[in-house]
Amino acid sequence: xxxxxxxxxxxxxxxxxxxxxxxxxxxxxxxxxxxxxxxxxxxxxxxxxxxxxxxxxxxxxxxxxxxxxxxxxxxxxxxxxxxxxxxxxxxxxxxxxxxxxxxxxxxxxxxxxxxxxxxxxxxxxxxxxxxxxxxxx
Length: 137
Fold this sequence. Notes:
With 137 residues, this protein is α+β, with helices and mostly antiparallel strands.
C-alpha cells in the first residue's frame, strides 16, 4: 500500500475523524490542496467545501465551513469552525448557514464586505453542488 499520513478532523462539537489516509483533498481559501505523504509543511485557511479523505477503507467526505488545516510530511490536522459528515448535510443546515452568512455580510463593516461576500458565495456554491437550495437569487 502507498505511504500513508495520519489525518485528524475536529470541530468545536466533536472529533469527526482520526484515520490513516493516502490522500486528503482540502478546500483551501486560496485554492484546493491535495496532501499526501511527504508533503511540504504548510498551514492553510479553509473555505466552505467538501473535504475528501482517501484511505484503506475507501473514501470519506466531510462538509467543512471555515477553520485551518496544518499539513506536515506525515500528518494533516484540520480544525474546522464547523464540520459534519457529508451524509448529515441537509436543507435545514444549508438554510441556517446561508441565513447566518447573509446576516454577517449585511452587518459587516465596508472593509469586510469582500470577505463576507466571498464566504457567502462559497456557501451558495457548496449548496448548489450538493443539490440543496440556497434561497438566494
